[in-house]
Amino acid sequence: MLIGKDFNDRAKELLSVLAEVSEGDIERKVSVEDLVNAAGFDRTEIKNLLGYLENKEYIRVATIGGPYLYGHIHITERGVYKSKT
User: Fold this and answer.
1) Total count of domains within the chain
2) What is the DSSP letter of 39?
3) Which helix (H) or strand (E) holds 61?
């Protein structure tokens, strides 16, 4: 997986959608399926982006499983901050 400006822009876009859906609440568990519906990303892209965001500690996995590998996620404080910059 190559990480470049386009990938980073898509990751930032997804993080912004997550911040909106979670209302910036780091305790709110967000369904990845709901996030995909809100963001409109395809299955492969969402898995790659979520893996990247998890490695950067912008999200925290709450449950695994389902069509997107991740079931539910939380945005972290670091993720909330990054979504605003």
Assistant:
1) 1
2) H
3) strand 59-64
Q: How far apart are CA 66 and CA 76, in angstroms?
A: 22
CA–CA distance, 22 with 83 (Å, rounded to integer): 12
What predicted TM-score, i.e. pTM, was given to this entire model?
0.87
Q: For the domain that residue 45 is a member of, what is the CATH number?
A: 1.10.10.10
pLDDT digits (tens, 9 = 90+) for 35-45: 988 888 888 88
**Does the pLDDT at position 1 exceed 70?**
no
Do residues 62 and 50 make contact, with C-beta atoms less than 8 angstroms apart? no
**Rounded CA gap, 8 and 62, in Å?**
23
Which residues form the domain of 69?
A: 5-84
For residue 67, what are the contacts with CB-CB under 8 A and spacing of at least 6?
Answer: 33, 43
